[in-house]
User: Fold this.
Amino acid sequence: MCSGNALYWMEILSVKGIGMGRWLSLGEAVDPARIVSMLRSAGGRAELGRMIGGEVGPPDAESLALARAFVEKRGCGAICIGDPSYPALLAEIPMPPPILFFRGDASVLATPAVCVVGSRRAARRGLLAAKRIGGDLAGAGFLVVSGMARGIDSMAHVGAMAAGGKTAAVLGCGVDVPYPPENLSLSVEISASGCVVSEFPPGTPPLRHNFPRRNRILSGLSLGVVVVEADLDSGAMGTAAWAADHGREVFAVPGPVEHPGSRGPHRLIREWACLVESASDIMEGLPRQGILPLTREDSSGPVERGNRAERALSDGEREVLAALGADPKHVDELVRICHISATSILPVLLSLEMKGLAESCGGGMFALAG
Assistant:
């Protein structure tokens, strides 16, 4: 099940070597149907290349066929930006995913949502807290959003379903890819009453650089993000950072001071997050009338937007930006150049991409935007 525009976006995004940001920018000015028509001829692709400043190849027949076969399966489908069923909050973030593949009932994404995330190696107290919070939020009518990872994420989903509520899992791989493998049965349970979604086409493996990008969707779908146990450089902390950027509420569950998993929530509480002892603290901290759309500065040109973005960079972002070039570099090469870990560099690269300064070229390769 999917709309005509979703089919167009499947074909557009199957083109290799062109970052999502360029297609989104073009899609604001040119109808997706027109872009697809141009993609189907050598002359049209040449014109598109001139419009977006890059060489445009033909759609990838194999990945396109896989995506089309997936959306024709019972209980599966895709929704794209501009569709009435596309989540309104998600559409407000910078660089929203043009398309979401799903398995289950995508209508649950219209329910007011709270994201619960945390460590894959959580202690028992953290797992129980995530399950209790997930259950209480779901029982109050909220959609519980998480990433279906081991540990906190899984328990948040389990708690929501145990309470008879709805939950949605956002993946860093294709929705047809069982990851982590031990959560296959959980994935089936979630899709039976809620949904499993991903911006990545069917068949996409769980590559490590997919997950920081996935985390912006967790935040984008939600009114607020709750962190239960997290290391300082974890994906859960990255999701909290996205929430702050998106103007969403951030909550954190404190823990024993001697436990490493308490460091992330404690830092969030010190800096700006609401301390959570129970789900009632979360519900009291959520906006009563929803949230205001993000303010965008679309009236200025791309050069001025780029200059503003560069002025707002952190030292780490400046270092990674300096290592990038017009020719794509692999994440591993950038790690060696910048002398930082892969765990640390991936959120930086995604931040640069969202600011329009860097571009993902696929296969773990990144280059300067444009």
Notes: The first strand starts at residue 76 and ends at 80.
